[in-house]
Design a protein that fits this description.
The chain is α/β, with parallel strands linked by helices. The chain contains 59 helices and 55 strands. Strands 35, 36, 39, 40, 41, 42, 43, 44, 45, 46, 47 and 48 form a twelve-stranded mixed sheet that branches. The relative contact order is 0.05.
């Protein structure tokens, strides 16, 4: 404590000096209290878990001895206010009114009147024009206290360094709008919107100069020295990167140096005299009281604290001039109390905000600060070395010779603050690291990070505080713990954040006008206090951390450190912190790492993995590692000698019970093990869920408005899977691919091919991959209708940029291959990245959108199993949890004995790489363990418990299985050369011990195939039931149940999966120095495992404890004692010692395993167990002592370790293990041996880690996550800022992705570094997905399943459900007359006139409709039992692939039809016009007004009175026009409820020819159809038709078309065109017509029956142009085609043309059908009714039988849009048809449905009540006059027309069973009805629009003469009066 005492004495002496110069501090320090507070605070900080130091100085200032009265304080404050205002009189300020701004000018604060931003924080990076002689100046605005405004001011009007020589007036320019020549500051202040209430003065508002820092950013520079400010002490300051720390001399001895420095600073400065009283020095040492205070205050007077300015500053501060006394301060920094408190330091206070930018905020540990909180005045240090004007050339520091040999380590020097001295001499024995310097630098960038969020500028941590925090951090490290920069950064961040939050809280709690409270709780650390505070902190470190204080430079401290190392004074010291607080150089520091373990780890961590491998290879090649083997032989029995002796004695055979000669009985038992199940490709529910998530994301890309993926245009899926250059990974993916059957499903292979065929779909990303990638790209170009999926598996491997190295370099190969322009721009290639570690792909410049990320879901939510899995994933988090959840034997462990041996050897061989040492030690342990198991029990003491357990299980486990199934041991050795050494040595030892048949040793290298011995190969073939003689395992999965040691090598794992027989994961050799999240987690990912969920996976099962007990019994050599223990102790007692012995310390994982052997000895000899526990706990702590002076005896004792101490105490003699195992088996289990593999499936593998990695993994940070999560994700990325928030434990995967996207930036050699967004918010690739999930969780099967369901979806998109129904009523007698020749192209009118009309309806949709009577046809009397409402649901459909001539709905969007659909940028949605079109119709008795919505692109189809004027007509072509690229007939498609699903896209169906297509819609659906079909013409029906049916739409189409025909005839007649030459046809098409087919007639001789009729798909253009070219086509009334059916018969199409009913797609001659009307009130059977009317009018109805139309099943909209429901809400919606009618004037429930619809539905389902005699009586049909109504399938209808000269069926001799009159017109008379005869009892139904019409009809038609009526037989539809119900009357024939 000598240093501490002396430092403390100096401090207290300074503080106790009387203030001779008039100093009046608020309080004096009390010596005793100061010491107590200081020591207690520091000790509490050191013992606390929180390494942020407590507020050491918060208690240093005690009660004030001299209080400043409130009156004095107020007087001082008022005086300062006056000075601030620049007013020289005490009179109140004169109110000032600003000139009003010009009209329209911007008046926003921070902007000029031209609206340009002037705020420094927002324009600091912009280039500004600064004329010669002008300077950039910061202007203070009273309304923006947190901002400075930028202006350009003539330097002549600004003062010099002495505050003088400024011209009166003003001259400046505006940097915003560029306006120049402001001659008055008043004018300028108006222009920049200062909005002042007092007279504008430049002295008050022009605050500071603005300068550019090293990054080119404009920052605040020195304050402008206006008149008087030198006496008020305005602190000059430069930017944070250029300012110097304050000069804080500590004693009189330093005065001379400062005095001599004065003339150097400025020639005009007053030299300081050495005769000044020493009390000035006391002033210098006094700390400031108020945060950010730039000046000292003495008795109300001011004293300037100038500062050295850097070379980049535009001005330097000058010595202060005090009015009351001569200046004696010179350049001494005064850190006294503040000049004033600035009204409570509110956030609005300009001084507070100005000074806060350069003054850091101190750290407090959870304590709140009040308004007067103390802060540190230290300035941030510059980035580069700082040399004061005094600096002279320093002598370099000489590194002593033989430093490495003496110290057995290379010290690591961390550069801190200031410049590091030059080193000379033996510089190879020291390492210089810039990590700490970078960490300090990053902390200085903190304010800039937070300023962008608009917060007030906050000071970073001071230099002294960062150094003190560093010391605190080093002190709390464990003796063997290596410092981590990540931890130190978090210390800085937590410290800064705590201070930051405190200041914000202070600002919020302090009112602007309230004076500050008592002195604050926080005190700064000054340079004078730093050394002894650091010593106090280090005093509790037991000399682990030493503080060396240098007087002048760091060179002195380094020299002293080297001297101490050479003299052996720093043997117990791990860290030396060198401090230099020279007044001329500021505070400088560096840290020298002298601890052997720490220095070695830091040295190796500075090398890249490739450099480390090179060093390892060099040491192996030069034979340096052989010294280890020689050393092993010297401290333990020579292994090679013992092996040779053992081999000679046993003659190469070992008589182990676990190695019997296979007899016939044993061979038979090999088939008895039922535990072996090899599943290469197993699909689990969660994998299917992930595949569906992938599919949904692909669909989201396709559905987005960006049009980046057109799924509708793809017909199939192909893929290519890229994997890292690992042969095992390549074969593993091939195995999954072959087992999944995905190639067969995708149609890529037709037969079950071999694995060799699957290899063409997988590519290794090596030098030979270019060919496969090029072929893949070429195939994508040739097949534009194939979607190619490029799967980038293990995507985090090789993220190097392809542009950063030569083209033939392996680095960057992935970037060059997968990110090439051809793949990125191909519209049919979608890239899927698959990885377990996506962090490095989630940077600020990532190519993957966050919306295209798919994260593996959690299997449970609130303890609910979401996917019902029979397995549970056991990954990293579960491994960590196993160490905390009370496991008796944790799954995650480390080997303390191995660690101790490695550390001891590391100190003895400092020049060897630690990886070499660790590998050789582990090889020795494995070799010795094998020797111990086979009987050389004396070797047990030379291995570790963990290694011995591994070998015992490996050799003994197959004994317990009848088939000899064993377990795998994974030995991870990253270095290929070291792995080869281990493989060779272990094989040698195995063969010498005769264990060749017991287990295999396999070298797993990325570049080579697996090699398995013949014996084990035969075993695998037997287990896998493989008959192929040439089969060899190619993946690790195929090594299932093989007892083996897999030496897994390679720098990084490449995605290899391990079998379920993996029991031990030995990761003791992984790199523990290069700690990055991806590197660490991918190593631990090898241990991930799927545990069967039947047994608990989190805890070791009880059955497993029994097995472990059995293994531990075999680890001792006293078989009699084992039997006694096994027989006497029950199971609970056998297991309980394991739990009791579990240590609660941090080393529990090691101690619990180390005590395994002694556990069972405890029951007989308790003292032995306790002694073993004591030895184990003290072992690690004694390792450091052993490092002092190593000799063979000490190393030998370490080698023996715990086993020697614990096991020897209870083993009086040693025996062969052979008998012990067999006997213990007999005792433990009397039943037949069970395969241990069954138990291992219920538990994860045991993982062994290096101690350093174990500590990192199991320790958690403040967020609750493992410390490893806060590491840098990847070596190719860097943090955007060190002061970032930590990942939170509650973050989802999506939130973690967003975290990395915000806080990581790719380095220049990262593949995404060039992916910067140029003028965009992002630069994501639109067809790129990222699938992330834990390692070994099943991602491969998930994305293979995704390929399958994607293919099925594309097929589904390319297929539709087509109605495939055979025509009905084909049992009628067919006419045997052939009217047209087969294959005739067009009908002959003369011949067609002779064709009889077929009254029978053959359309299958009318299967349940009433048959139409004709004398030629006979019908079956059975009828159909199907209900009408079930017809649609039961109609037969078939799946059919869409052809290239199909019609599409709105979801189809390909490149070809973008313009057609109006998706082209040239056609905006608003570019359409609404046009009214009116015409009168006598039947309606009023004028009809329709509306056309016509897009601009379709206006050429119409005629207007003038451009943009009144719509006159729709243009029609001429009959003799022959344009092959045009369709003459306008197409009308009535539709309702199908704006999304209607097939209105006829672009492909029309083969892209010009056509006119009009959608006929209802008024209330206009907006929806306009939105989805912006480029289609819409015909909007009048609102009165909103509730009408299809009959109304057809009626309006036909009437409009005829009216338009007349208008066109008139218009074109004026052009000389004859009226008969105008094209009279229109097309009325359903909205579900999807494709059109044509039958080709292939004759076969003269016999028609032998001809074939193949059918092919053709375009609608072809069919329409063919029909329109029909000779004399204008003589036909209607033309159409049949409905497609796959079951058509030859007889149906033998006649090319038919005279029959037409449906669905009809060409209508509006000229000939002028007198034939559609019934506008009809909802059903509209086409049948119109066909009968047209035929009765004598019109020709021609059906082209060689053409057919396919109709798609659309389950939405159409006639199902009419739902019959009650008007009363509480009545159920399902209303039976019998309720559709009621008696007039009854209290029946009215229905909300049109009356005609109710009537039609009622008659369809209940007409048997009206016509009982007509039921199944086809010979006596119901006579229906002028209409066809559906009366149900069992009632036939005979249609007759009442029109004169109409064609009707011959009814002579025909007796009708009923009469139906539906709203009769004037042509129906009594005489007309008397022509027909009726059966007696026949029924009559008369339907009219109202009751009055009903009675008039009865009277007019004289119905009462032959029909009998009853009053109760009158009915009406169930409509209310306002809905105009229909009335009908029934009667009976008499």
């Amino acid at each position: 404590m000598q240093y501490e005492t002396s430092g403390y004495f100096r401090a207290t002496t300074i503080y106790s000096i009387d203030a001779e110069m008039g100093n009046s501090y608020a309080g004096q320090l009390k010596t005793t209290r100061f010491e107590e507070v200081l020591h207690n605070s520091i000790e509490a900080s050191l013992r606390s878990n929180n390494i942020v130091p407590r507020p050491v100085f918060s208690q240093l200032y005690l009660e004030a001895e001299q209080q400043i009265t409130s009156l004095e304080a107020g007087r001082l404050e008022n005086k300062d206010d006056d000075e601030d205002d620049g007013s020289e009189s005490s009179s109140p300020p004169i109110p000032y009114q600003m000139k009003p701004p010009p009209e329209g000018a911007c008046t926003n604060d921070g902007f000029c009147q031209s609206g340009r931003d002037l705020r420094l924080a927002f324009i600091s990076n912009e280039q500004m024009e600064v004329p010669l002689g002008f300077l950039l100046v910061g202007v203070k605005s009273p309304n923006l206290p947190d901002h400075l405004l930028v202006s350009v001011v003539d330097r002549r009007f600004l003062p010099d360094d002495n505050g003088r020589n400024a011209l009166l007036g003003f001259s400046g320019n505006c940097v915003g709008c560029g306006e120049k020549g402001f001659r008055y500051f008043t004018e300028f202040s108006n222009h920049i919107n200062l909005k002042l209430t007092t007279q504008p003065k430049k002295q008050k508002h022009l605050r500071c100069y603005l300068i550019r820092n090293a990054e080119g950013t404009l920052t605040q520079g020195p304050l402008i020295c206006w008149k008087g400010t030198e006496s008020r002490g305005r602190q000059t300051s430069s930017s944070p990167n250029t300012s110097l720390p304050p000069l804080c001399p500590q004693g009189p001895g330093q005065l001379a140096a400062i005095d001599s420095a004065e003339p150097v600073l400025s020639g005009s400065q007053t030299a300081i005299t050495t005769s000044q009283p020493t009390g000035i020095l006391a002033d210098q040492a006094l700390p400031p009281l108020v945060s950010g205070a730039p000046t000292a205050h003495y008795n109300g007077k001011d004293c300037h604290r100038p500062q050295l300015s850097s070379s980049s500053s535009s001005s330097s501060s000058q010595p202060a001039k005090n009015v009351n006394r001569p200046s004696v301060i010179g350049t001494l920094a005064n850190s006294g109390p503040p000049k004033k408190r600035h009204k409570g330091w509110s956030p609005e206070s300009p001084s507070a905000t100005d000074t806060a930018k350069n003054n850091p905020v101190p750290v407090s540990n959870g304590s709140k600060a009040d308004s007067g909180s103390l802060a540190c005045l230290s300035q941030p240090s510059p980035a580069g070395p700082l040399l004061s004007p005094l600096a002279t050339s320093e002598e370099p520091v000489a590194v002593p010779d033989n430093l490495l040999k003496i110290c057995r380590t290379r010290p690591v020097i961390f550069k801190g603050h200031g410049s590091l001295p030059y080193l000379c001499g033996n510089v190879n024995d020291v390492i210089i690291s810039p990590l700490l310097h970078s960490c300090y630098q990053n902390s200085q960038a903190l304010p800039r990070v937070y300023e962008q969020y608009g917060a007030s500028p906050i000071q970073p941590l001071s230099v002294e505080m960062m150094i003190l925090l560093t010391v605190y951090y080093l002190v709390q490290l464990a003796p063997d713990q290596v410092p981590l920069i990540e931890d130190l950064e978090q210390v800085f961040m937590r410290s800064w954040r705590e201070s930051h939050l405190t200041e914000i809280r202070q600002y919020q709690q302090t009112a602007p006008q309230v004076p500050p409270q008592a002195p604050s709780q926080i005190q700064p650390v000054t340079p004078a206090q730093l050394p002894w505070l650091a010593r106090l902190a280090a005093s509790s470190s037991n000399n682990s951390v030493q503080i060396i204080e240098s007087t002048n430079t760091l060179a002195e401290g380094l020299s002293e450190t080297f001297k101490g190392l050479v003299q052996g004074k720093l043997v117990q010291t791990n860290f030396v912190v060198i401090l230099c607080t020279s007044a001329s150089r500021g505070t400088e520091s560096c840290v020298v790492v002298t601890g052997k373990h720490q220095a070695r780890a830091l040295e190796e961590s500075m090398s890249t993995p490739i450099e480390s491998l090179k060093e390892i290879n060099y040491e192996l090649a030069t034979g340096k590692a052989e010294a280890l083997r020689a050393f092993f032989s010297s401290i333990c029995p020579d292994v090679d000698t013992l092996l040779e002796k053992f081999y000679r004695e046993k003659s190469g055979h070992v008589c182990l019970s676990s190695n019997p000669v296979l007899s016939e009985e044993t061979a038979k038992q090999e088939w008895q093990c039922s535990e072996f199940i090899a599943e290469w490709h197993q699909m689990r529910p969660i994998q299917l869920a992930v595949a569906r998530k992938l599919l949904s994301h692909v669909c989201a890309i396709a559905d987005s408005s960006t049009q980046n993926l057109d799924l509708g245009s793809f017909e199939k899926v192909e893929f290519l899977i890229s994997v890292p250059p690992s042969e095992v990974t390549f074969q593993q993916i091939v195995l999954h691919l072959w087992s999944s059957g995905i190639l067969l499903e995708l149609g890529l292979e037709k037969f079950c091919m071999s694995k060799k065929g699957a290899e063409q779909y997988v590519v290794k990303l090596d030098s030979e991959a270019q060919g496969k990638i090029d072929a893949f790209i070429q195939k994508s170009r040739v097949n534009p209708y194939t979607l190619f999926i490029l799967v980038h598996d293990h995507a985090h491997w090789d993220l190097s940029s392809g542009a950063s190295g030569p083209s033939n370099s392996p680095a960057g190969l992935v970037d060059r291959l997968l990110n090439c322009r051809e793949i990125q721009e191909a519209p049919n290639i979608l890239t899927l990245h698959v990885t377990s570690f996506p962090f490095a792909l989630q940077t600020q410049y990532t190519r993957v959108s966050p919306y295209n990320e798919i994260h593996w879901p959690s299997t449970c939510n609130n303890d609910v199993d979401l996917y019902h899995e029979n397995t549970k994933y056991f990954g990293l988090s579960e491994l960590i949890e196993s160490t905390r959840s009370g496991h008796s034997l944790p799954v995650l462990r480390y080997d303390s004995s191995f660690q101790a041996m490695v550390m001891a050897l590391g100190e003895r061989f400092p020049k060897l790489h630690s990886a070499v040492i660790r590998t050789y030690v582990l090889i020795q342990h494995y070799a010795v363990a094998m020797m111990a198991v086979v009987g050389l029990s004396q070797m047990k003491k030379y291995t570790s418990v963990e290694t011995l357990e591994i070998i015992q299980n490996l050799i003994n486990a197959p004994e317990q299985c009848p088939s000899r199934h064993g377990s795998m041991v994974l030995l991870r050795i990253p270095s290929v050369q070291l792995a080869a050494v281990a493989y060779e040595r272990l094989c040698q030892v195995r063969e010498k011990l005769g264990l060749q048949q017991q287990f295999e040793i396999i070298l797993g290298s990325p570049n080579t195939a697996l090699s398995v011995g013949k014996h084990f190969l035969e075993m695998l073939k037997t287990w896998l039931k493989i008959q192929d003689a040439d089969w060899v395992p190619r993946t690790y999965l195929e090594l299932e149940a093989l007892p083996c040691i897999l030496i897994f090598t390679g720098m990084d794992p490449h995605g290899e999966s391990l079998p379920r027989s993996l029991k031990y994961c030995d990761l003791r050799l992984i790199n523990s120095t290069c700690l990055m999240r991806t590197a660490l987690e991918q190593e631990l990912g090898l241990t991930a495992y799927l545990v069967k969920s039947q047994g608990p996976s989190e805890k070791v099962p009880a059955s497993d404890l029994t097995e472990s007990d059995m293994e531990k019994l075999s680890s001792t050599d006293n078989e009699e004692e084992e039997e006694e223990i096994a027989m006497e102790a029950p199971n609970s007692q056998k297991r309980s010692p394991v739990k009791r012995q579990r240590s609660y310390s941090h080393d529990s994982a090691a101690s619990s395993r180390s005590l395994k052997v002694s556990t069972f000895c405890t029951e007989s000899t308790p003292a032995a167990g306790s002694s073993g526990k004591h030895l184990q706990s003290s072992e690690v702590s004694n390792l450091d002592k052993s490092a002092k002076d190593l000799d063979k005896n000490q190393l030998e004792s370490i080698l023996k370790g715990t086993i020697n101490e614990s096991s020897m105490s209870c083993d009086p003699q040693t025996r062969n293990t052979t008998g012990s195992l067999s006997k213990s088996n007999t005792v433990m289990s009397q039943s037949a041996p069970k395969c241990p593999r069954a138990k291992s499936l219920n538990q994860p593998p045991i993982v062994l880690l290096p101690k350093a990695v174990y500590d990192v993994i199991t320790s958690v940070d403040s967020s609750g996550l493992p410390k490893s999560t806060s590491f840098l994700p990847h070596h190719l990325v860097m943090w955007a800022s060190s002061f970032r928030p930590l990942l939170s434990k509650i973050m989802t995967c999506t939130e973690q992705s967003l975290y990395y996207r915000q806080w990581t930036i790719p380095k220049h050699n990262h593949m995404d570094s060039k992916n910067m967004a140029e003028g965009k918010t992002d630069n994501f690739h639109p067809r790129r997905l990222l699938l992330s999930g834990p390692p070994q969780v099943g991602k491969t099967s998930a994305y293979l399943q995704f390929l399958g369901i994607l293919s099925r979806m594309l097929i589904r998109l390319m297929e539709v459900d087509i109605y495939d129904e055979e025509e009905i009523n084909l049992n009628v007698m067919e006419d045997s007359v052939q009217y047209h020749k087969p294959g005739a192209m067009w009908p002959d009118v003369a011949v067609f006139n002779r064709l009889p009309f077929d009254y029978t309806v053959h359309d299958p949709k009318y299967e349940d409709a009433s048959p139409v009577y004709s004398r030629e046809h006979t019908f079956s009397s059975e009828g159909s039992s199907r209900k009408q409402e079930d017809v649609y649901l039961r109609r037969r459909t078939t799946r059919m692939k869409l052809s290239k001539y199909a019609a599409y709905n709105t979801y189809h969007h390909c490149e070809q039809c973008h313009q057609y659909m109006g998706l082209s940028p040239r056609y905006q949605l608003s570019e359409s016009a609404l046009h009214a079109f009116s015409f009168s119709y006598s039947m309606l008795g009023e004028e009809i007004q329709l509306y056309f919505i016509i897009p601009k692109s379709k206006e050429h189809h119409f005629s207007f009175s003038q451009p943009g004027g009144q719509l006159e007509s729709m243009k029609l072509p001429l009959t003799f026009d022959k344009n092959p690229d045009c369709i003459k007939s306008p197409i009308f498609t009535p539709t309702t409820g199908r704006h999304e699903y209607g097939l209105f896209n006829l672009y492909h169906a029309m083969d892209a020819v010009n056509h006119l297509h009009i959608l006929v819609i209802k008024e209330y659906e206009m907006a929806a159809y306009k939105k989805y079909w912006p480029n289609h013409i819409l015909l909007v029906l009048p609102s009165i038709f909103n509730g009408a049916g299809i009959g109304a739409a057809h009626f309006m189409i036909k009437e409009l078309s005829y009216h338009n025909l007349e208008l066109e005839r008139n218009r074109q007649e004026e052009l000389g065109i004859k009226p008969q030459d105008i094209w009279p046809f229109i097309i009325m098409a359903d909205d579900s017509c999807v494709m059109w087919n044509m039958v080709d007639v292939v004759p076969a001789g003269d016999s028609m029956s032998k001809s074939s009729f193949p059918e092919r798909n053709v375009s609608l253009k072809h069919i329409l142009q063919h029909i329109e070219a029909t000779p004399a086509v204008t003589q036909y009334g209607l033309c159409g085609m049949r409905k497609w059916s796959s079951r058509r018969s030859t007889g149906q199409i033998r006649e090319p043309f038919s005279h029959c009913h037409l449906h669905d797609f009809v060409l209508l001659n509006v000229d000939l059908t002028q007198t034939v009307q559609f019934n506008q009130n009809r909802f059903t059977c509209v086409d049948v009714d119109f066909n009968l009317r047209a035929h009765s009018a004598g019109l020709l109805i021609c059906r082209f039988n060689y053409f057919s139309v396919m109709k798609k099943q659309i389950a939405i909209g159409g006639h199902r849009a009419f739902i019959i429901k009650s008007k009363v809400s509480d009545v159920p919606a399902n209303i039976p048809p019998s309720q559709y009618t009621c008696a007039p004037d009854s209290k029946h429930t009215f229905l909300a449905a049109p009356a005609p619809l109710l009537l039609e539905k009622y008659l369809q389902h209940t007409s048997h009540r009206f016509f009982p005699m007509s039921l199944k009586n086809y010979a006596h049909p119901v006579l229906s006059v002028d209409c066809y109504l559906n009366l149900g399938l069992e009632i036939a209808v005979c249609y007759v027309s009442s029109r004169p000269h109409s064609i009707n069926i011959i009814c002579s001799g025909l007796l009708f069973s009923g009469l139906l009159l539906y709203i009769c017109d004037s042509f129906v008379t009594a005489s007309f009805l008397k022509k027909f005869q009726f059966l007696k009892g026949a029924t009559l139904c008369v339907i009219c629009q109202d009751r009055n019409s009903l009675r008039q009809t009865v009277v007019k038609l004289e119905l009462e003469e032959e029909w009998r009526f009853r009053l109760r037989d009158e009915f009406q539809t169930a409509n209310s009066k306002e809905d105009k119900p229909l009335f009908f009357l029934t009667g009976q024939h008499v």
